[in-house]
Each structure stands twice: as C-alpha cells, then as structure tokens.
Amino acid sequence: QVQLIESGGGLVQAGGSLRLSCAASGRTFSSYAMAWFRQAPGKEREFVAAISWSGDNTNYADSVKVRFTISRDNAKNTVYLQMNSLKPEDTAVYYCESSAAQYSSSSYINPYQYAYWGQGTQVPVSS
Q: What b/e string do you get for 79-102 counting C-beta neighbours within 10 Å, with b at 16 or more?
C-alpha cells in the first residue's frame, strides 16, 4: 500500500521560510515523478512544483518560481519543498503526490497524472 506522509507545515509570517517533507513508502519511490499541489480554502487544488523520477528535471508554477525549490532524496524515499519569501497568498494545505506512470517527467502538472497523495500539511502565512 502506497503511503505519503507530509510534514513541516505550520504558521509562518510573510517573508519567512518553511521546508516541507514527504516520506513515501509502498512502492519503488525512485521510479516515479513527485509533485506538490496545494489547495486554498474555497479554491481548487493547484499545481505547485514537480520533479522527475531521476531528479534531473523540475517544473514550477509561475506563482512560486524562484521562491520555491523542489528536491528529492531517493535514498531516503523523501521529497522536499523549500519555500522562501512566503506570501499570504501561499496559504493553503499542501499535498505531496506520486505519479501514476513510472519514469515520468516533471512536465506532469495535472492532478489526474498522479495516483497517490498524502493527507496534506497546512501552511498559514500571516501578513
């Protein structure tokens, strides 16, 4: 059974930083692209960042480019999201997701391209 467990969320002031982690288990982590999505209250889930199965390629939503960095450690079965210069509009529940297909790229930005996700971690950003 695939499990994804996010951690690292919490209240932060605007301009601050947080590092989210997602520990994966249940299948060969290194064979699948990983992504972070987020969902703000009353809004649809949106793509934040993705990283290819190998870690060689990354992709970001325009709203977080330069400020956020996705990375992975295949030896630890963990994907990270470093978030800097946080803004109130970054407030959301952040979800870690694992791609449906093996050896997929970082170009996967649609939720239907991901088969598993975690319970989410809340990131409230105060102004």
A: bbbebeebeeebbbbbbbbbbeee
**Residues with Cβ < 8 Å from 119, sequence gap 6 or more?**
5, 6
Q: Say yes or no to pLDDT of 89 above 90.
A: yes
Find the radius of gyration of the CA atoms of the chain: 13
pLDDT in tens, 41-82: 999 999 999 999 999 999 999 999 999 999 999 999 999 999
pLDDT digits (tens, 9 = 90+) for 15-25: 999 999 999 99
